[in-house]
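Title: Request for sanity check on VOC family protein prediction

Description:
We are preparing a figure and want to confirm that the structure record we downloaded matches what your pipeline produces today. Could someone re-run it with the sequence below and paste the raw structure tokens into this thread? We only need the token string, no images.
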Amino acid sequence: MSTFYHVCFTTPDLTATMGDLTRSAGLTWQPPVEGRLADWDYRMAFTAGGSPFIELIETDPGGPWGDTSTPGFHHLGFWTSDLTAGRTRLNSQGYPEAFSGCPYGRAFAYHRLNSLGGHIELVDLTRQSAFLQNWNPDGQPMPAIDESSLA
């Protein structure tokens, strides 16, 4: 069985959203990081303590995260045993690819699920150890979608 390992929300104010979730729900956070994906600068943070994580992304509107001028749900993140096979599978099932990080050296892709009002993010399982090292150093491996069983 696989399960999602994070849920992502975009926010125009990362610090305020982290604070609100800390005060209202007692969440704790790993320190935010800044990054750049192609032409888009962003700040992001993940909750501390293990899966499922909450991911927050702050960035200017446009790019792979769409209209980030107001807060909102963006995606559920899943590890996949084979990103290429997963992308092909989702496209063939009618869930169009909205963005791929692959051309930018990032092993993930967003696929639109209209019924969800957001995306499914597939992340190649080869990236899991780096994720754990950065966001949950003492964390255990997380399950992945086994693409060979869904083909």
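Thanks, this matches our download. The beta strands are 6-10, 33-37, 40-46, 53-59, 72-80, 97-100, 108-113, 118-124, 144-145.
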